[in-house]
Amino acid sequence: xxxxxxxxxxxxxxxxxxxxxxxxxxxxxxxxxxxxxxxxxxxxxxxxxxxxxxxxxxxxxxxxxxxxxxxxxxxxxxxxxxxxxxxxxxxxxxxxxxxxxxxxxxxxxxxxxxxxxxxxxxxxxxxxxxxxxxxxxxxxxxxxxxxxxxxxxxxxxxxxxxxxxxxxxxxxxxxxxxxxxxxxxxxxxxxxxxxxxxxxxxxxxxxxxxxxxxxxxxxxxxxxxxxxxxxxxxxxxxxxxxxxxxxxxxxxxxxxxxxxxxxxxxxxxxxxxxxxxxxxxxxxxxxxxxxxxxxxxxxxxxxxxxxxxxxxxxxxxxxxxxxxxxxxxxxxxxxxxxxx
Length: 340
Ligand SMILES: *Cc1c(COP(=O)(O)O)cnc(C)c1O
Prior knowledge:
binds pyridoxal-5'-phosphate; Aspartate Aminotransferase, domain 2; 4-stranded antiparallel sheet; 13 strands; 2 domains; Aspartate Aminotransferase, domain 1; alpha/beta; globular
């Protein structure tokens, strides 16, 4: 059987999750009448210490809605160059919200408060207006890197001093909390809004949740509708999300251990040039040129292991719910069998 390290989005619902979905009570969520969606939203808001939440089809949509609600056209968003909102959302910040973007370059996707402050523009008619900071925790392209609560507090203070909003792209926020400690409330208190993916490490088939104040979420509901994200009996999907929050957070350290095991094995391979030490469930490494990611991945697939290209000579492996400890050991022996 294929050992699929392509992404933590490839997981299939477990038996228990499917049972929860089949048993869900549903209604029309566009009218606010789906009790399971309402329960998921209330649960997420409470978890992160905010007033309200909104269930959406994807993390791209929750991020795009946040950009739209926090800003006006001609504003600028400050983020790391590696950010999902810049790299992987098709330039939506420009199309959906008419924004400029101010990119900060870091080694691992983790911004410092000093860098954020230096990126804030003075107020002149000919400059975009700095309006929003987005931090990604964990940062995917940074190798699943994690912000400390202290670093987030300092960024928060800069935002408050300059009147900027702070959005946390927490697609993998529970991985961050599992790795560095801290509670959802502690991290929630530092952000004006958070986006949390249910379909990544938590193992739900579909969905992300946007979390914020009551007035922010009221406006977000309208933006979700204009983006075509108003779903009807979405409770079947929300039930999977509730199940994931109840059952799949505690096991995340297992994924992190598996990533460590992969990294330890990779560090010994003669064809690895550089390894980004994993803090969570993502392992990124550079191959020694001229070995290309594509050639490497093809050989790896022949050994029954799939991973993702992340650059001409760079590969990403992600551990998740559907990869057992035994599969990791098999993946490691497959890696040891590769010769280039
Ligand atoms: C996956 C991901 C998202 C959202 O992706 P969707 O595929 O649209 O659900 C957002 N931010 C980060 C950091 C991600 O990894």
